Amino acid sequence: MNTNTVSQLLAKDQFGLEIEIKGWVRTFRAKRFIALNDGSTINNIQCVVDFENTSEETLKRITTGAAVHIKGELVESQGKGQKVEIVVTSIEILGDSDPENYPIQPKKHSFEFLRENAHLRTRTNTFSAVMRLRSNLSFAVHKYFTENGFYNMHTPIITGSDAEGAGEMFRVTNLDAKNPPVNQEGKVDFKEDFFGKETNLTVSGQLEAETYAMSLGKVYTFGPTFRAENSNTSRHLSEFWMIEPEVAFMDLAGNMDLAEDFMKSVINYILENNKEDLEFLENRLLDEEKTKPQSQRSEMSLIEKLKFVVDNNFKRVSYTEAIEILRNSKPNKKKKFNYIIEEWGADLQSEHERFLVEKHFKCPVILFDYPANIKAFYMRLNEDGKTVRAMDILFPGIGEMVGGSQREERLDVLKEKMAALDIPEEELWWYLDLRKYGTAVHSGFGLGFERLVMFATGMTNIRDVIPYPRTPQNAEF
RNA sequence: UCCUCUUUAGCUCAGUUGGUUAGAGCAUCUGACUGUUAAUCAGAGGGUCCUAAGUUCGAGUCUUAGAAGAGGAGCCA
Question: A66 partner at 20 to 30 Å CA-CA among A79, A88, A91, A328?
Answer without folding.
Answer: A79
